[in-house]
Specification:
The structure is a single chain. The chain has 2 domains: 70 residues; 38 residues, no CATH class. The longest helix has 21 residues. The mean pLDDT is 92. It is built from 4 helices and 2 strands. A two-stranded antiparallel sheet has the order 1-2. With 114 residues, the chain is mainly α. Strand 1 and strand 2 form a beta hairpin.
Length: 114
């Protein structure tokens, strides 16, 4: 099995930490947030201008790395991040048409629309 399929989030987190360490950089929140915003803008721009899908995927990967930087600079460790990813997956898998509705560009809880 390709190891990239086993624990890609942990691998990305550890790879990002190693990248920062190579440059002697300890992520600072202000810098991490600034980088995240820049990469998010680049992803949105790539998607809105109809860039090829490889470029969009590249920009998305940059967003993932910079989101990890925000987490690192905020003291979030990899195990907590992974736990929260699975919590979100579980929460989203539990949503149904009976509990949620797509409206105004977002899937929302039906009870919040009353």
């Amino acid at each position: 099995m390709d190891t990239r399929q086993q624990d890609s989030l942990r691998e990305l987190f550890l790879g990002t930490a190693a990248f920062y360490e190579r440059f002697g950089y300890v992520p600072q929140l202000a810098d991490s947030v600034s980088n995240f915003r820049e990469e998010t803008r680049e992803l949105i721009e790539a998607a809105e201008t109809g860039s090829d899908v490889a470029h969009i995927a590249e920009e998305a990967a940059d967003v993932f790395v910079t989101a990890i930087g925000v987490c690192m600079s905020s003291g979030v460790d990899i195990d907590l991040l992974i736990d929260q990813v699975y919590a979100v997956i579980h929460k989203n898998n539990a949503k149904t048409h009976a509990t949620h509705i797509y409206t105004d560009g977002k899937i929302r809880r039906r009870s919040s629309l009353k």
